[in-house]
Amino acid sequence: MPIHDQGYRHYSGRRGLRGGAWWVIARATILSEIRQRRVIALLLLAWAPFLVRAVVIYAAANFQQASSILATTPQTFREFLDWQNVFVFFVTILIGAPLIADDRRANALQIYLAKPLTRVEYIVGKLAVLFAFLAFVTWLPAILLVVLQVLFAGSLEFLRENLFILPAITLFSLLQIFVSAFAMLALSSLSPSRRFVAMMYAGIIFFTAAMNNALFRITGSRSWAWISPNDTLDVLADAMFRLTTPRVIPVPLAVGAIVALIAASMLVLERRVRGVEVVS
Amino acid sequence: MTSVVQLDRVSVKYGRQAALRDVSAVFPAGAVGLLGPNGAGKSTMLKSLLGFVTPDTGRMEVLGLDVKQSPLEIRARLGYMPESDAHIPGMNAVSFVAYCGELAGLPKADAMQRAHEVLYYVGLGEARYRNLETYSTGMKQRIKLAQALVHDPDLLFLDEPTNGMDPRGRDEMLELVRDISKNKGINLILSSHLLPDVEYTCDYVVVLDKGALAAQGPIASLKGHAGRVFELRVKGDKAPFVAALGAAGIECPAPDDEVMRLFVPEDTTSAVLFQLAAAHGLQVRHLRASVPSLEDVFANAVSGAR
Predict the structure, then answer these.
(1) Does A28 contact B99 at a Cβ distance shorter than 8 Å?
(2) Contact B50/A275, CB-based, under 8 Å?
(3) How many independent structural domains does chain A possess?
(4) Hey, is the C-beta of A21 within 8 angstroms of any chain B C-beta?
(5) Is A12 within the bounds of a domain?
C-alpha cells in the first residue's frame, strides 16, 4: 500500500466567492510580465523623466536663480504627463498586444470561459493588467512629483493655489489609461498574432495623427483633431490643467470622441471575446 | 433514472446553417457517449450546454440547473476538455492547472496542491514543470483533462479526448476516462466519432446525425434491438439485389462495402438472403452471422435518420 496516494481524490475544501476571477487573471498576468527583463527595463526607463523633473523641482525650490525659469506650475505636470505618453505607447504595445491575442492563438478563451467566470470578468482582468502598468508610468510618478514639490518647497502653498492639480492628474491619467487600454484590448481580440496587433495599434496612433495634420494643411482648420486620440487627449488635458491655450476643438466634442472610441472598443470586445468563434 | 443533462427541443443555428435541430435528449448519471459523424452537432451541443452558444429555441438543464439562468453555477461544477489544443501561453503544466483551479474558485494553496495531485493522476507528474508549448499531442490531451479535473467537478465534458494520440496513449486515456466514471464517481459525457472509445468507456449513448437526434439509450439495449446481423459478400451486380433487400425489410447501410453488414428482422432467416441472391443472379461468396456492435447501432441510427 503506498504511503501517499497519488490517485485522484475528491476535493472537500473551500471554494471562493464568485466575482474574484478577474483578480486571479490580473495577478497571474502581472507576475508573469514582471519576470521579463524587457518589461522591467521599459518600466525603469519610463521613470527617467520623473528623475529629471524631480531634480528640476528641487532646483526651483532651493535655488533663487533657478526658481524664475524653472518655477513649478500646473503646466509642469501637464508637460510631464504629455512626455509620459511616449511610455504609455510602448507599455501598451509591449504588455497589451499579447493579452488577448495570445489567448486566441492558444485557444485559451474556451478554457477561461468554461470556468465559472463571465466575459466581463475576463476583460476586466486583462484591463486591470494594463491599468496597473500604465498607472505605474503615469499617475504614480506624477503624484509623487506633487509630493516632492511639497516636500522640497516645505509648504502646501502650491497645492492650496492649485487645488485642482491632484484631481487633474488623476483624471487625465485615467483617461490616458482607459483610452489606451480599451483600444489595445479591442485590437488584441481581433488577431491571434501579437505582432500584428502591435502594428495595428501603432498604425492607428500614427495614421490618425498624420491624417489630422494632413487635413489641417489641406483645410487650414484644426477642427479635425478629434480623429486622432492623442490630439483629442491633448485638448482634454489642457482643459483639466486649466491652461489658457486655445482649444482646437470644443471640449464636449473631445469628450464625445473619447467616449465613442471606448464604446467602439467595448463593442469589439463584446463580439470577439467568446467561448466559440462563429464563422458565417 | 437520475439525469445530469436534459435537452428539450433545442435548436441552434449558425447563420442559416442549423447545427442542432429540435433535439430532445436525456443524459443519465454515469458515462454517456455522445456519438455522431463529424459535423453532427456534438461539439455544438457541448458548447450550448456550457453557455458558449445560445440556442434559438428550447431549454437545457445541467445538474438540475437551467443553463440560461445559472451558467456560472453550472460551470463551477463542470469540467470541460475541449477538442482543439488549448492552454494558457507561457505557463508550465503545474502553474497552468493551478491557475485553472483558481479560476474555478479554489484558494491558491489548494489549487496548487490539487494541480500536483491531478497531474500525477493523468500521468504528467514527471513533466509538470515543463512549459506546455513543449508538450507532445498526447501530453496536451492529458493536460486538458487535468485542467478539467482540478476543481473536482461533478460532471465532465470530454470532447474527442483521444484525438491525435498514439495507440498506447489512447488506451491509457481511455483507462483514465473509465476510471474517472467507474471508480471516482464523476459523471461524464464523452463526445466522439470513435465507436470503440465510446463502447469501452460508456454505458449509455446519444447518437446525433446532421444536428438531429438519431438514437439514445443504454448501449446494451440498443445492441439488443438491432435484430440479427449478417456479414455478406456477393459477386455480381449488387444494385437490384440491395433494392430487393430493402423491399424485404433488410437494411444494408453500406452497400458499397466489399463485405456488407445486413440488419435482418428477427423472423427472417438466412435462407431469404440466398433466395434473393439467386433471384438476382448473384453468387454468395461469404455469409456469416455476426454480433450486433455499437457500430451497427450507429450505422442503423444514422441511416435511419437519413
Answers:
(1) yes
(2) yes
(3) 1
(4) yes
(5) no
Tell me, what amino acid is at A22?
A: W
- Write out pLDDT tens, residues B173-202: 999 999 999 999 999 999 998 888 998 999
Judge if B107 and B144 occupy the same domain: yes
Chain A hits for B182, Cβ within 8 Å: none
Q: Are residues B203 and B235 in the same domain?
A: no
Best of A17, A112, A115, A279 to disrupt the B interface (most B CBs within 10 Å) is A115
Range of the domain at A164: 21-272
In this structure, the answer to whether residues B241 and B190 fall within a common structural domain is no
Interface confidence, given as ipTM, is 0.89
Contacts of B168-173 with C-beta under 8 Å, sequence gap 24+, read B169/B138, B169/B141, B170/B197, B172/B123, B173/B138, B173/B141, B173/B142, B173/B145
Mean pLDDT of B79-101: 94
Domain extent, residue B83, equals: 3-221
- Amino acid identity, position B216: Q
Number of domains into which chain B is organized: 2
Q: Containing H/E element for B65?
A: strand B65-66
Q: How far apart are CA B23 and CA B7, in angstroms?
A: 7
pLDDT in tens, B71-83: 999 999 999 999 9
- Chain B contacts of A122, Cβ < 8 Å? none
The reply to whether A280 falls in a domain is no
> What pLDDT is stored for residue B306 in this prediction?
52
| Assigned domain for A192 exists | yes
Residue A1 has a pLDDT of 47
Q: Does A9 lie at the interface with B, CB-CB under 8 angstroms? A: yes
